[in-house]
Amino acid sequence: RVWLLRARTAVRAWLDDAHAIGSAYLLFRDARAPGIPPLGTMASTPESVFEAVKAYIFEAPTYHIALEAILVTWILYLLFFSKQYRPESKHDKLTKEEEEALIAEWQPEPLVPDIYPKDRAVDPAPVVTGVAGPHMTVNGKECLNLATYNFLGLLGNHAIQEKAANSIRQYGVGSCGPRGFYGTVDIHLELEERLAKFLGLEEAILYSYGFAAISSAIPAYSKRRDIIFCDEGVCFPIQKGLVASRSKIKFFKHNDMADLERLLEEQKKLDERNPAKAKVTRKFILAEAMYMNYGDLAPLPKLVELRNKYRVPMFLEESLTFGVLGETGKGATEHFGIPAEDVDIICVSLDMAVASVGGFCAGKSYVIDHQRLSGLGYCFSASLPPMLARASIEALNFMSQSPEVLRRLRRNSEQMRELLEGIEGLECQGVAFCPVIHLRLTSPSPSWEDDQQVLESIAEECLNNGVATATAKYLKEEMTLPPPSIRLTVCSEHSEEELSQGAAVLKAAAAKYLSS
Prior knowledge:
22 helices; globular; disordered N terminus
């Protein structure tokens, strides 16, 4: 009854207000029919208003009537059916006794979700004491190091350590600011210049973390609605860059160039159907020079051929090949005899052969300069500590002055692979002259977790016998989960006797757990 009285009062007010009706009439005067009287001749009486509304309803366009009906319905909903704010009344307040009862009954939720007891236990990680060189002390026991990426043995190099220590006295330990906010030190510019010159490219950009180099470079260029043709076996940093880009990802089978060409050809046909969309859609090819999860090389000549044929820029992640492949350690481009400028962006982590920290991207100046305002890891992270930049420069000097180290690394890699041939229950995957070797089960079980546990038992047995190895670890967020493996790495400073010792321990451990 109260609502009816309010509605009747509102209707009377609307009918009495001739100006309001006139304003509404003005909104639709362009669409009115010839029979509607002009505004100046309309009287402010209910009869005249009724006649004007009647003429409008019968002679106005249908779409106007439908639009007005929707608007009126919406206004009525807002007036009578939507929730309205009503201040709390005194009767809504709880008494002191009720508050205390509720507090006593309340149980806080756990900060992390509850998990099964078997998943709660985490095996303690091996603890390394001292420098992780060709040998290292793990859990208080000296071991042969076949687990870390110290390919050239530069970790613990006394000349590099001395230069880095001197830079601490000159620059201090850290930078305390991003590159664009007083975090750029002259030694950063020197390192960028040296890296670009070493690769024969125009410019390089330095990141303070190797993971951030490729994961920042990808979203700096590829955005939403762009397309990336990516190998399905890429490592986790690349995967995070793909997610950050929000682009459309088209995976091709691992190292399958026929599958990549099929995807490129399909995209070419789609572009021909819709050239306007193709003009604003950027496309990229993305691959690793040496795949961290497999140890094999990408067919770079074929990738460059497809890049030129379909005019698609290419990212190449060279963390495992920089300082490893090529006569002077320039990476996969030097190994295959391909000019570095044929690859649009080369990304490298300095955590591997250079034995420092950080990463960089290199290419043409107009391409690299874009990252200085769009590379998230460059713009928002504190810059690389000067001592690590100095260590990287000295590592470049070492590679330039000691090319025999690269030859020794390749020789050790080939020897280690020969020693591991025929190991019971395991097979070697990768390239003979590359220092990363994956040992995978020849007869895997249906359970990935069970196979991983077997390989971890073999690695633990090796550690107990003085050889440090590592099983490849993967996160649940991995887009493609590789088969479980023991990942071995070879160092140029390993002797033939040490490699033979490591292979013998591995064979004995494999025989112990795989003989049945």
